[in-house]
Design a protein that fits this description.
By secondary structure, the protein is an alpha+beta fold. Strands 20-19-16-17-18-21 form a six-stranded mixed beta sheet. A five-stranded mixed beta sheet has the order 2-8-7-3-4. The two termini are 33 Å apart.
């Protein structure tokens, strides 16, 4: 599928690493990396020991300056002294600044409301099942032994109470499916997430970024050597958030848990970043991004970073790339990785997807076991008619990766209800699904059960560029008595064909609102021109904001349109089409005339091409209207 406009942007630093990796002979690249590692290994031995930070901070500071990576002073300060978990937090030198603003509540208000937080936390703890209480207590004991928490006999006056709960993740795409339990601390219930504002939204290297980086590496290399082969390599940061210390001077963050052997509630000061606290996201990812930048600059490998997952494409015969990255980050900088989770290969699992780099392009797919696992999980949620915010957050992440395999970054699917549930105000009550959420999950069950080809896309190494190849431009319109659309076929920048349809609204459509009919026009146009096509690229222009919003987002507040929108995206998934939606002002929409059943204009050439009328089967129109009724 061609990469559509508006797709992934790659910065200059990553571009330079791509160019070096793709064009430098492997032996020369290995020699360069060896010299870099030798120099910094020697320098590491000359400095004082690492200290209490998540890595050898003094060495990292020196390395950043040597590599010309500027603007990490605030991060380095926090790595040494601890990260603030309230107030305005961010790293403008690392991420682009967001809109200005202040936290929703002050620290004073946060502390004033803690007695109520503690009462509700104890109620939630008592409501946990015996199995959950044991799992929570086990996680606290492990962190106590590791020094991540310190028990307090009496919480101080500035205590903020974090109720601990467990999130269970099913790893369905592994050879033997397993359930992974992760301890989370409820920053929402504690209200600490309301006492922080992110000054710099985090930007991550998503699955689409990785696909684009891999594509550029392979495309650049194969233009020099058509026989070049590639693999991917990945690393997993150990303990992730727990590697960074947090400040506890203004606020003392206390994990609240029950000792199952005595039934007594006990308190533990959290010394590190905690899963469930909003501030932890920006602190940890800023640190992880800086590590990835060190690899890009120092080892000249195009390393991508998504939270604690790191991945890079490289030549298939480069047998030291992975060990060199580990040596730099773990051996020299002393930050910890799960070596049993490092991997490399032609077929590579990353962010819940399977990537392959071949001569025809970069393949992105969801494995059959993962699809089956997601369907099983979704059916379980639908059967019990309940989804907690913690479960919804995990589910939203998994379905977000599935979106990448279905549509790349062009499409949207019914994810908004899942995200809304994940942001609910508490995490332990029994949440009924409700209509919106039930419909969204039903859509995913149906779509995931489709032929697995729906969940495979290929990003060509040499994608269609503006003015090259064949693409389509579609304009649609409707009025209360007519439907119309015009479709242009453009090959190598030239309009080679223009077709249109013009069809009266049948009796069944009388009384429909205009946004219903506008959506029917789009559905009919896709059935007419794209039903028998796959891997197509089309730009769709509409002049109705309700319809445009539903097509872009895969959802709509117009309840009667919701099922039709879901069906539209199911069909697009099956065709593996690449549809990009834009707004055209009504006065500029040339589909306005055919929607008004006017034909005289069709004798006038457009860019030298006479429009050709296409007949629409009445059954197609009737079916499209039935979908919005």
């Amino acid at each position: 599928m061609p990469v559509a406009k508006g797709m992934t942007q790659i910065d200059d630093e990553m571009t330079a690493a791509i160019e070096y990796s793709a064009t430098t002979p492997v032996r020369e690249a290995q020699r360069m990396r060896g010299e870099f590692l030798t120099r910094w290994r020697k320098r590491s031995s000359q400095l004082s020991p690492r200290g209490a930070g998540p890595c050898h901070v003094d060495l990292l500071d020196e390395m950043l300056r040597d590599l010309g990576i500027r603007g990490a002073d605030a991060l380095l300060h926090h790595l040494r002294t601890g990260c603030p978990m309230s107030g305005v937090v961010g790293y403008e030198e690392i991420y682009s600044p967001g809109p200005p603003g202040e936290p929703e509540i002050t620290e004073e208000e946060l502390l004033r409301r803690q007695p109520d937080v503690l009462t509700r936390s104890k109620q939630a703890i008592r409501a946990e099942s015996p199995a959950n209480k044991e799992a929570i207590w086990s996680s606290v004991r492990k962190e106590l032994e590791a020094g991540f928490v310190v028990e307090l006999r009496n919480p101080p006056a500035n205590a903020v109470y974090l109720r601990r709960f467990m999130v269970r993740q099913v790893k369905s795409d592994e050879p033997v499916p397993r359930v992974k339990e992760r301890a989370c601390d409820d920053g929402r219930m504690a209200l600490i997430n309301k006492a922080v504002r992110m000054a710099t939204p985090v930007k991550l290297d998503t699955a689409d970024v990785y696909a684009e980086v891999a594509r550029r590496v392979a495309h650049r290399a194969t233009t020099r050597d058509p026989g070049a082969a590639f693999k991917s390599m990945g690393l997993d940061h150990k303990e992730a958030y727990r590697q960074l210390r947090a400040r506890n001077d203004r606020l003392c963050r206390c994990v609240v848990a029950e000792d199952p052997s005595t039934g007594r509630v006990r308190f533990f000061r959290m010394e590190r970043l905690s899963f469930g606290e909003a501030a932890a996201v920006v602190h940890y990812n800023a640190f992880a991004k800086v590590l990835a930048r060190v690899v890009r600059r120092g080892l000249k490998l195009p390393l991508c970073q998504y939270y604690d997952d790191f991945a890079s494409p490289c030549p298939a015969n480069d047998d030291t790339a992975l060990t060199d990255v580990l040596e730099l980050l773990q051996g020299i900088l002393h930050t910890s990785f799960n070596e049993d989770k490092t991997s490399e290969g032609h077929s590579f699992r990353h962010l819940g997807l399977v990537f392959t780099i071949a001569s025809e392009g970069v393949g992105v797919a969801i494995s059959a076991p993962r699809r089956e696992g997601l369907v099983h999980m979704l059916k379980g949620v639908l059967a019990r008619d309940s989804l907690s915010p913690g479960e919804a957050a995990s589910l939203a992440g998994k379905l977000g990766f599935a979106t990448s395999a279905l549509f790349g970054r062009v499409g949207r699917v019914p994810l908004q209800p899942v995200f809304r549930r994940s942001n609910a105000s508490t995490t332990f009550a029994g949440f009924k699904l409700g209509g919106d959420l039930e419909e969204a999950l039903g859509w995913w069950v149906r779509t995931l059960a489709e032929d697995e080809q729906c969940f495979r896309r290929t990003v060509p190494l040499n994608p269609i560029q503006p003015g090259e190849g064949t693409r389509y431009v579609l304009l649609t319109d409707a009025c209360l008595f007519g439907l119309g659309a015009m479709m242009a076929t453009i090959t190598d920048g030239d309009v080679v064909a223009i077709e249109y349809f013009s069809h009266p609204v049948p009796q069944e459509g009388a009384g429909l609102q205009i946004h219903h009919l506008e959506f029917v026009a789009v559905t009919v146009a896709f059935a007419l021109w794209f039903r028998d096509k796959d891997d197509f690229t089309v730009s769709v222009w509409v002049d109705n904001d309700v319809v445009l919003g539903s097509l872009v987002q895969g959802r709509t507040r117009a309840r009667e349109l919701r099922a039709a929108v879901h069906l539209f995206w199911e069909r697009l998934a099956r065709s593996r089409g690449d549809a990009w939606f834009e707004r055209v002002p009504g006065a500029d929409n040339i589909a306005d005339l055919p929607s008004r059943l006017l034909h005289a204009w069709a004798g006038i050439p457009i860019r030298g091409v006479l429009p050709k009328w296409r007949e629409v089967d009445q059954r197609v129109v009737d079916a499209a209207i039935a979908e919005v009724l």
